[in-house]
Amino acid sequence: MLRWIDVLLFARYGNPEPPQQIRYPEARWQHLLTAEQFAVLRGKATEPPYRNAYCRSYAPGRYHCAGCGTALFEAATKYHAISGWPSFTQPVAKNCIRYAFDDSHHMQRMEALCNVCGGHLGHVFPDGPAPAGLRYCINSASLELRAE
Asked: Is the pTM here over 0.85, yes or no?
């Protein structure tokens, strides 16, 4: 189980090695993704709160990166955080998410990226439920729910 200290250490000293890496030119990403997915995954945009595909969805399955298909979150770890975006307590594996300090928009946050393709997913915060206390606040446009 990952804790906030683990996230901080990964961001500061190096993230776990991904099982593989996918790197495409931006033109190829633009061809592969919808306009909204491209804006979020490659441009680090944020979709509007509460008006996104998975905010209020609690269907079973596994959430994958919409860019490369990497498994990111189990639906069982999703919870209602009242943030406006899908929120999760833990990733499926410690090496599927890459962490980076983000001080954009005059805030200090921890960015969550797909560790395989580098796509922007959202942010992780230390205000989630016990036992780990993590809240992965993720853009729906960066996710694809698959029944597994």
From this structure: yes
